[in-house]
Amino acid sequence: MTLTKNKYYFEALDNFPHALSDCLDSLNYALSYDPEDADSLCLMGRVYSEILKDYETAKKYFEEAMQSHVSNINTPRYYIECLLNNEDYDEAGKLIEFALQIKGIDKAEILYCKAHLLERKEEFKAALEQLKESKRFSYCRNMFEMAEDKEKFIKDKMPRISTKRKVETE
What we know:
By secondary structure, the chain is mainly alpha-helical. Helices cover 72% and strands 0% of the residues. It contains nine helices and no strands. The chain has helices at 2-15, 20-33, 38-51, 55-68, 75-85, 89-99, 107-120, 124-136, 141-157.
């Protein structure tokens, strides 16, 4: 049964996001075989979050996925993105701290998410610090470049302190 469930999960993953009808068919089959499969629940959460923009429903799927397999390294990143899009910043912060403790998780991605959270809260200096950490934990060029691009973007958003010279009139 696990093999069949995995077959349908991989079909769903292969069809996401370009063939949503086929993706959902396969995903529903996978969940019918194992309604507590964390990866399938996470992918269903992504459908609701990334495609349908129904963040509340997505959160329910992500929560189920986390409860089903708390140390699943795939779920936190997408769940954090969903929480950020829904402006649930306190929840996102807690999940980020939890995710950083999961063995095997991509810390660079999670720290990047933390920087994104801080940016949304307009804590630009703290966001830049997190991006520095993200680059430190980056082990591929793509992640490193994403962090560098985000750094430049945040620096451009930071308020400029203008220094005006005092002109003395005599």
